Amino acid sequence: DVPSEFGNGRGMDVEWVPARNTILFTRESGVYEVDRRTKKIVWSHKAPSSHDADRLPNGNTLVAWGWGSDSSDPEVREVDSSGTVVWKWHAEQHLGDEKRIFAQEGFTHTNSVVRLANGNTLVSLRNFYMLVEVDPAGRVVWKLPGLFTTPHDPEILPNGNILVNTRGPQVINEITPSGKVVWRYKPDQHDVQTIRYNHRLPNGNILFVERTKIIEITPTREIVWQLRLKDVGTGRADKRRWLYKAERVPSGHRPIAIHA
C-alpha cells in the first residue's frame, strides 16, 4: 500500500539518486523524491500523467508527460528544485507531417526522455513508433521513424548504439543510430507479455522488467537471475500490482553505475 501523500495511481518510473541517497519515482499524480532511510518525501512536483523522470547533473528534473497529454501539452519538461519549468518541448510544433500510427492514451504517449551528453534530449514517442533527438531550442536534429512497434525505454550505450524494447512481439533490440539491428533478444512470448524497461548493466548483462518478472540475461541470452511475483497474474485484474521498473542499487559501499 502506498501512503496517501504519494498521490493516486500507478508507479511508472524509479531511480536511485546517488548524490542524495534518495529514490526518485513517478506516479500518475506527479514526481516524488523519498529519503531511503526515513521514507519521507524530500521533494515533489505535482504533474498528472508523469511517465518518466530523471534527475539531471544540474539538480533539475527531466519529466515526460505520457498518456494523459494532448497535442497542446508539452511532452517533455525540465523543472528546477522549486518546480519552475525551465525548458519544455511540444511535439506537435516539430513533428510536421510525421504520421501518428497509434492513437491511444495521448497524442504521442511519450514514455521516456533521456538527457544526452551533448545537451540534447532523446524522446521516445510511442504513438509515432519513433525516437527523436531534440536540441535545446527544440529542433529535431535526428529521428528514427518506423521503429518496429511502440518503442519503450531507449538507452544510449557507450558504443553509441541504442538499447530499446518494442512490442508485438516483445523484443529487446540493440540498434545502430541508423536503425540496423545488431543484437536481439526475443523471450518466450507466453512467459513475457509486456516488457516495460531494459538496461545494460556494467557487467554487460541486460536487466529487464515485465509485468510480473525482473530478469537479468547475459549477452548470449542466458537467464542468470530473476524475480517473479507470486500470486500476481498477467490479466487486467492484477494491473495495479504489476511491476514497471527496477533499478540496481549499491550493496554496502560498492558504487555501481545507474541508468540516468
Task: Report on the architecture of this protein.
With 260 residues, this protein is mainly β. It has no helices and 20 strands. It has strands at residues 11-17, 22-27, 30-35, 41-46, 50-55, 61-65, 76-79, 85-89, 110-115, 121-125, 130-134, 140-144, 152-156, 162-166, 171-175, 181-185, 197-200, 206-210, 213-217, 223-228. Strands 1-2-3-4 form a 4-stranded antiparallel sheet, with no helix packed on it. It starts with 10 loop residues before the first strand and ends in a 32-residue tail after the last strand.
Structural class: mainly beta
Could you tell me the mean pLDDT? Answer: 89
- Extended strand count: 20
Main sheet properties: 4 strands, antiparallel
Radius of gyration: 18 Å
* Net shape: globular
Structure characteristics:
mainly beta; 4-stranded antiparallel β-sheet; 41% strand; globular; disordered C terminus
